[in-house]
Amino acid sequence: MADIKKTPYYSWRIHRLAKGCDLCVQGRKLVLFITGLCGKRCPFCPVSDQKIYKDVIYANEVPITDFENDFSKIIEETKLCEAKGAGITGGDPLVKLDRVCGAIIRLKKEFGKEFHIHLYTPLDLVDETKLKKLFDSGLDEIRFHVDVDDKKHWEKIKLAKKFSWDVGVEIPVIPWLEEHYDKFLDFVNGKIDFLNLNELEVADNKVWQKTKEQREIVCKDDMSYAVEGSEILAMRILERCKELNMRAHYCTCKLKDAMQMANRIKLRAKNIKKPYQEIDDEGMLVFGVIKLTSSADREVCAKRIMLKSKIPKEMIAVEGRKIHLHIDFVEKVIKRKIPEIIEVGVMTKYPTYDGFVVEYDPLYEK
Ligand code: SF4
Asked: pLDDT (tens digit, 9 = 90+) per residue, 72-112?
């Protein structure tokens, strides 16, 4: 009988991880959010208010406004992150089945058969015809989101085994539903290839605001959004999986932050980094920022700063209303006291499409 083993990715497993997880922990999966439309109202829904119940598409953080004509943006993002596969998610992707199948076909065409694609879907819209369409498009792995406290659609899981792909169930571990898990495990045992258990995480959205009004939710610690009690229950569920000799993986919030996201970010940073930017240990881009008076000509000022502070051409650039430069030259520029400069600082930002600023440290202000 296989034991419960700690992985190097802050998670626990029985038997080996699913192929989709193998690539995910390396940061090698593109997250393709195919639609926010969904007929369900899960009280633990992690999807942001900007996306949920809206027909929007994102490739990682890149908004795709026109699926047919903007597919090149999905390809580009895949290349920038050096992804070797994609995880298609939503909403309920089956609401837009043709779009999902189109994405699978086009990604496989561009990156080859080996490009591994998995899909997350609730069971509500699942039927054999839809599964066949997904399988025929080239989907490698299907993961069902299941309501453990409502067996209405459970039988549909069996339909997926009619096709030669990997079939999994991926569910959050919800402490207040503890009594339901054993019954569900007994049902799925022998019917799926793997079970993924997700540590429950509080999201910053309206759904969770409501959930928090209805029940007392305590986070594990000040640094985490993981819900207290989820991990203890997950370990209990794993013990039961061990008795059943089920292939299972308990995926923590820390895995998502410290492995999946961090590794993806580092790969993207390497590919989008400009010569004047440095990459810090967490994969963030770090660079100097110069703000000028509103009347200053940015191009002329950049040239003057470059010459006066002896900055190589590639280490300084005009970006929008500001001048960006390598951090090694920031102090030198401050000492020059150029009249048009009103502020100099160091910025740290995500290397993602939205370029979220983590920190801005002003070092000089006029
Ligand atoms: S099925 Fe998924 S996207 Fe839809 S409400 Fe539930 S958690 Fe949110």
From this structure: 999 999 999 999 999 999 999 999 999 999 999 999 999 99
Residues 65 and 207 in one domain: yes
Q: Percent of the chain scored above 70 by pLDDT?
A: 100
| CATH assignment of the domain containing 51 | 3.20.20.70
Asked if 198 and 298 sit in the same domain, the reply is no
Q: Whose CA is nearest to atom 2 of ligand 1?
A: 91
- Of 216-225, 236-245, 295-304, 320-329, minimum mean pLDDT range: 216-225
Q: pLDDT category, 221, cuts 50, 70, 90?
A: confident
CA 52 to ligand 1: nearest atom? 3
Distances (CA, A) of 240 to 119, 252, 355: 26, 18, 43
Could you tell me the distance, in angstroms and rounded to a whole number, from the CA of residue 202 to the centre of ligand 1? 14
Pocket test for ligand 1, best of 47, 119, 123, 205 (most atoms within 8 A of CB): 47
Minimal-distance CA residue to ligand 1 atom 8: 45
Phi, psi of 67 (to 5 degrees): -55, -45
Ligand 1 and 172: CB distance under 6 A: no
- Residue corresponding to tokens 């998502």: 256
Question: 37: domain range?
Answer: 5-269
Question: In this structure, are 15 and 119 located in the same domain?
Answer: yes
Residue 276 backbone zone (phi > 0: left; psi -120 to 50: alpha; other: beta):
alpha
Mean pLDDT of 169-194: 98
Do residues 246 and 295 both lie within one domain? no
* Residue nearest atom 6 in ligand 1 by C-alpha distance: 42
Give residue 25 CA to ligand 1 midpoint distance, Å.
23
Q: Judging by beta carbons within 10 Å of its beta carbon (0-12, 13-18, 19+), is residue 200 exposed, middle or buried?
A: buried
